[in-house]
Amino acid sequence: MSDVSVPPARRSIRRQRSIYQVHYSIKRQDSEMTARPLVPPTSPPQIQAYALQVAGHKSTEDTKYLGLLQCSNGTIMKPIIKPAQQREVHFYSRLAGSEDPALKELQTSVPKYFGVRKYSYNGFEQDYIILEDLTQRMLEPCIMDVKIGKRTWDPLASEQKIANEQIKYQLSKQQYSFCIPGFQVYKLSTGKLHKYGKDYGKRIHGQAVKDAIRNYLNGIGTSLCRALLLQFLSELWKIQKWARRQCAVRLYSASLLLVYDAARLRECCQNLELTARAGCRPATPARRRHSLHGVDSSGSNFSGQLSSKGPVYKKLQPVSLTPMTLTHSSFSTPPPISSPWSDALASFNHNHSFEHNYENKLSKIKMNYRAMLDQLSYDSPTPNPWGTVKIIDFAHAFFNEEEERTIDENFRDGVDSFVEIFECFLRETDDQII
Prior knowledge:
Oligomer: single chain
CATH superfamily of the domain at 135-273 and 371-432: Inositol polyphosphate kinase
Structural class: alpha+beta
Number of helices: 13
Strand order of the largest sheet: 1-4-5-7-6
Order of helices and strands: HEEEEEHHEEEHHEEHHHEEHEEHHHEEH
Number of strands: 16
CATH class of the domain at 135-273 and 371-432: Alpha Beta
Strand content: 15-25%
Mean pLDDT: 76
Helix content: 25-40%
Low-confidence stretches: 18-36, 271-279, 282-304, 350-355, 375-383
Distance between the termini: 96 Å
Radius of gyration: 32 Å
CATH architecture of the domain at 135-273 and 371-432: 2-Layer Sandwich
């Protein structure tokens, strides 16, 4: 028997769950549940042909691809094919470092520029302009290219180039000061992608141009989405304001690139009859259902039926006119009071009835504010909202010298015409707010 005493076995401490874990059934946090910082990928970004290109050069010479390339890091690579595209490189470089107020304002309306790099694709090396991918993280990107201005050739163009440009999209440019080289749209009802190229754009004019824009906005056969229109107009009005007063640059053959996510539009606008969630289109007010419990209406004038204006009551026997009634009928109606407060008082003179449904009106107000708040406090990891507009294609842009600083009327008129169409569409949705 040893004189060395054996220490008593150490009892493990029993860990008790907190009141929050007990009440809300929260699992105990361990090392596997603890968030760890993401390790940046070390592999080079993947690059492929850009499948969403709706206009511009997309042809292939033998195995040399001349279209846009899409990079997995959220950028687009635009090949420098023609000598004129060196002017686009110069434009982006000068714009990025300019202190001119008009050019600094323009920086917010063009895609972000990341410089020029050489890259080999399909065995052919060439220079590429690296630009921001505006469709990044969009599930169903809808894209429209709108070339701005009646004149789409620059001062250095040859006579043959001028003749060709005068023929292309002739009617559309004469009527609207812009043309539509192409667009693609995902239909909300089917989810299918529809593409419209240059051949379609060259044929449309007159009302067909407005119909094409409505088609792009998923507004054929249904009401347009006010939230989407406000997303676009918030950017279009900014571009319009800039175009009306800037004298620093002349933009020939530049385009407005419109992009939005049809998946977000579907989330905003579908199932209108089923719910009045803060979507962009007003939902049909739900009718009051009959009570499940039978109520004896023998002692009441209520018939148990509802019309669009409220309950239907039983007809009562007519009451003969009394002398007091005859006396009141002899007085003429006093003239209406004219006051600047009349319209304001009329707007407040609502009661909670079948004709003045406060819940429906409040849902419309929330819808309108939702679109505006999207512009002010967008919390998505992508820097762009789900609908935006940018100016692109600056191969034919010319900076004005001091003695040449005048407003670019060609670009301004095209933007004004395009904005006017969107403003007309917005007025169509006025029933979606009070």
